[in-house]
Amino acid sequence: MLRERFTQAMKDAMRAKDQQTLGAIRLIMAALKDRDIAARPSGKTEGISDAEIATMLQGMVKQRRESIEMYRQGGREELAASEQAEIDVIMGFLPKQMTEEETKAAITALVAETGAAGIKDMGKVMAGLKEKYAGQMDFSRVGPLVKAALNV
Length: 152
What we know:
75% of the residues lie in helices and 0% in strands. By secondary structure, the chain is mainly alpha-helical. It folds into 2 domains: 2-91, Uncharacterised protein YqeY/AIM41, N-terminal domain (Hypothetical Protein Yqey, Chain: A, domain1, Orthogonal Bundle), CATH 1.10.1510; 100-150, Arc Repressor Mutant, subunit A, CATH 1.10.10.410.
């Protein structure tokens, strides 16, 4: 499903002569092709799943946010703006992100569901969250919330 959206968005960007969007979509398609090729030896001849694509997209957003930070520290606002434009395009393909309250509620529910009792069960909770909410949460920000829920 996401693959078709990428293709359609690329066609639309080409028709509109929107080079910024087109460039971002081409980056997504290149990263997807790399992941598909890497998945072939494990028997995934059809390519990676939509959940894995969502995880890939989140990783791309994270990389760009880190780049923005570095560019701003170096006084390169034009490069930071370019990275932000790419983030905006990538975020358009991700499902709606959960709010912090929704994230905390999901963590609490999963902690109860898995019976996690302490910090040693953090991996189990994180794996469950990634399985259920791939693409809907920023997992770089979820870790501290899970720790807080397990330390109670």
